[in-house]
Amino acid sequence: MASISTLGIGSGLDLTTILDSLETAEKIPLTLISDQQTSYTAKLSAYGTLKSALEKFQTATDTLASADTFSAATATSSSSAFSATTGSDAVAGKYTISVSTLATAQTLTSASKTDKTTAIASSASTITIQQDNGDDAVTIDLTAANSSLTGIRDAINAADAGVTASIIQVSSGSYVLSVTSDDTGVDNAMSISVSGDSTLQSFLGYDASASSNGMTESVEAVNAELTVNNVAIESSSNSLTEVIQGITLELSDVTSGNQTLTVTKDTSEALDAITEWVDAYNTLQDSFSSLTKYTAVDAGTDEQDSSNGALLGDSTLRTIQTQLKSLLTNASSSSTFKSLSQIGITTDTGTGQLELDSDALEEALASDADGIKEMIIGDGSTTGIATTMSTRLTGWLADDGILQAATDGVSSTLNDLTDQYNAMSTRIDNIVARYKAQFTQLDVLISQLNTTSDYLTQQFSSSDSSSSSS
């Protein structure tokens, strides 16, 4: 059977061109499906771009919706003897502070030994360390061979007993064992007892109530003592977290008389968060504009400009854009602030972007930061501009949200188009193959007829020649 490249040789007809034309005509529906695939693929990619843009905006919105954003405060001390850090519930004000005593950790020190490795006990023993903080006593089993200064130190440190042991060389050939509470204050003072070996008990034992001890108290456990606004305070720690609301005091030295701690509201964090949120909102609007771009076409043509946005006219994007715009006010705010325009943030009606007057915002924050917080954060659950936006964004971006539903719909359509394309392509291949077979048969038939015609013509010519000769 003749191939496509030789179709028409037998018949003299241009069957190859005819077959190509028929194949092109049959494939017109494939082009239409392919165009749809291109369009839906672009739409799928656009949904990914939209999701990314919404996620970035959500990050800025979540920051703005945080209570800490509007609760920042700074603490300034007039003395290097103490410092302070502020929490979200710090209250602005001035506090008079005087530190008379720092909290210290108890240290017990043993009698000296001439070396660190000679055993002290002659039999196995048990060391018991009890602190006054109410924790259970810690017991440490010790063999006689391991009862040197080094052995005792290592055994205590491995026991996690709330104390730390070390060896101090006081002079050449003279060493002492030092045991210090890990935490300061009288509640962390310790007692040490030894059972099983009297020699080790005489060396290591300590009880504050006993008349004689093996260890001596070289550093007394002391609580910190201070006054805040002339109110006497005692603490086992030099870090005080509950004395002043929202303030952690860190004591490092005693003071010379009264000193001042000044706590002031810091609106810079709120200013930065609002500014960054406005920028993020405008960036999101840029994404909306790019994804829905429309370029007018000449009158009388049905084709749209290829530079149009992939989500032009898309209902999902339009829903998100419309609802975001509706959330820019908080009419239910209990403060005097109900809309962003009251704090210097207005909307450009032409572009939909927000315009920020930084001076007006700073002035509003300085005069009533709590009122702005009420408008933007509300109750932190169901009210407030940023709070409701954050909730809405979470819903849109959820696995069962409208954006995922739209994405799944496009993916499903693309799968259907692929199935349609493959089925139609197979059908067209079969049709073209049938055309080819029919053309080949036609070519052979015409070739045979031509051959028969030539033969008959030749026979008739020969017959005529013979008749003329007769």
What this model shows, in words?
- By secondary structure, the chain is of the alpha+beta class.
- The protein has 3 domains: 1-72 and 266-293 and 307-453; 73-102 and 224-265, no CATH class; 107-219.
- It is 44% helix and 20% strand.
- The chain has helices at 15-26, 28-64, 67-71, 149-158, 198-204, 268-291, 315-326, 358-377, 385-397, 402-469, and strands at residues 73-77, 82-86, 93-101, 107-109, 125-131, 138-142, 163-171, 174-181, 190-195, 216-219, 224-228, 231-235, 239-244, 247-251, 259-265, 345-347, 354-356.
- Strands 1-15-3-11-12 form a 5-stranded antiparallel β-sheet, with no helix packed on it. A 4-stranded antiparallel β-sheet has the order 7-8-4-10, covered by helices on one side. A 3-stranded antiparallel β-sheet has the order 2-14-13, with no helix packed on it.
- A hairpin with a 2-residue loop joins strand 7 and strand 8 (174-181).
- Helix 2 (28-64) runs antiparallel to helix 6 (268-291).
- It starts with 14 loop residues before the first helix and ends with a helix.
- 27% of the residues are buried.
- Mean pLDDT is 88; it is low at 1-5.
